[in-house]
Please model this.
Amino acid sequence: MRNLINFLIQYSVLFLFLLLEIISFSLIVNYQDYQKSVFLTSSNSVVSGLYKVSNSVVEFFNLRTANDNLSEENTALKNQIIDLQNQMAALQPKVKDDSLNFKVPPQAEYQLISAKVINNSTNKLLNYITINKGSRDGIRVDMGVINDEGAVGIVKNVSDKYAVIIPVLNQKTELSCKFKKSNYTGPLSWDGFDYRFAQLNDIARHVEFSLGDTLVTTGFAGSFPEGVPVGTIENFKMREGEQYYDIKVKLAVNFRTLSHVKIINYLNFEELRDLEKKAEEQ
Amino acid sequence: MILFLQNILSFIILVLTQVLVLNNIQFLGFINPYIYMLFILSLPVKLQRWITLLLGFALGITIDIFSNTLGLHAFSTVFISFFRNDVIKLFTTIEEGSNPIPSFHSFGVGNYIKYVVALVLMHHTILFFLEAFSFTHIWLIIFKILLSSTVSILIIFAIRSFSKK
Model:
C-alpha cells in the first residue's frame, strides 16, 4: 500500500500531465457537442462583449469601403424601385379594364435579418464568424447567411444576443450548389489554402461548362433560397483516369472585408423539415 | 507577492494581445503568430511542475474560448508546460539554490534562443497538426508551422529584449 502511494506521489506530475492532455483532447474530439454549450465559445457574452469593443475600433477604419458598398447597393435598389414603378404604371390601366388580370402576390417565404460581423478570421483551417444578433432577434441554428455579394455560411450556434456562423471557409462546411446554366449540382468545399478560392466536387465527366460560369445555391436544404450566387469557375482540369473534374471556384464573397451580413429566415423551415422527417419515417 | 501580481498582469496582457491583435494578422493568409506561451516560458525555473501544468491549461483554455477552438491551444500549451523543465535542463546549467526567470540575461543569449525556439516549435507543430487533424495537406501545414513559428519567435525575442534583466 505504501509503495503504491509512493509510486503515485512520485509520478503525480506525469499523471496530472496525462489527465490535462486527455481532457484537452476529448474537448477537441467532442467539439461538435460542445458547440451546443454556448458558454465555451465566442458567443458567450463576456467574450463577445470584448470583441464588440475591439470591432468598434477596427470598424472605423473600414467605414469608407462600407459606405461605398452601401451607396452602391442603395443605387441598385433605387433603380429597382424605379423599374417596378414603371412596370406598375404600365400595368395600371389594364388592371382597371380587366379585373381578371389581377393576381394575388405569392406570400413572402423569406425574410432578411441584417447583422454586423464582430469577429472573423480567414487564415485558419477552421474559420468562424461571430455576429451581433442572436435568438432575441429571431436567429435560429441552420439559417443561411448572405451578404450583398453572395452566400457566406450557415448559423452554427446562437445565444441570446450573439450567434456564431460557420462560413464556406471552413473545412467542416459543404455547401450544395449548382450551375446557373445547366442545374447540375455538386458540393462546394474549402481546402484551407486561399480565402478567395474553393473547390467544387462530384461534377462528372459529361457535364458541360466553361470558365466564368456562375454557381448558385440549390435551395434544397432550406437554409438558402435558390439562386444565391456562390462563385464563378476560375479554373478546372480533368486528371487522367478520373471520373470527376477538379474545379477551382472563385468565391463571390470577399471574406477578408466582411462587415455586414444578412441572415435568411425561411418562414416555412419547420414545416418543410417536419414534412421531410415524416416522409423518411414511413 | 509582486511577482504574483506581475504574472497575473502579463497573463491578461498576453491573452488580450493574442486574441485582439495577433489573431487578426493575416499576412499572406498563412501567418498567425502565437506569443501567449511567453507566459509559460517566463515562469521561474524552479516553479513546481504541477503549478506550471495547471497554469498552462488555464492559459490554453482561455485562448481557446476566444478563438472557438476548444481544447486545441490547451493541449499544445499543457504539452510545452510539461517539457519546459527538460528543455531547460538540456540547454542550461542552473546554479544550486538560485531560481531565475528565463531571459537573455539569466540563460545567456545563445541558450535562451535555443530554449525559446525549441518550445515554440514544439507548440506550433502540435497546434497546427491538431488543427488540421489529418496528414492530407502535410506540406501546407509544415509551411504554416515554419512561417508562423519564425514570426512568433521574433516577436518573443523583441518583447524579451525590452524587459530589464
About this structure: Confidence is low (pLDDT under 50) at residues 94-107 of chain A.
